[in-house]
Design a protein that fits this description.
Distance between the termini: 27 Å
Number of strands: 0
Largest sheet: none
Shape: elongated
Structural class: mainly alpha
Helix content: 55-70%
Amino acid sequence: MNTVNSESDARTANNTVRHQYRVLDDSEKAAMLKVKDDGAELIAYLDRLGQSRELSIAKTKIEEAVMWAVKHITT
């Protein structure tokens, strides 16, 4: 599979829906990576707590929050 880092200026290479992105400055790239890393860290912590419907919903909401935060940064 061909992948492109999300902070790369070439991030449209494997995206068939969104064809144009603006170039992010270094602070925006750092902010996006922090949001994603913090979201992944929280999901990993919840994984260590066990499995339940409630935790599944919480992880889905974290993923959604990360998506919206990244959209804010990249729009």
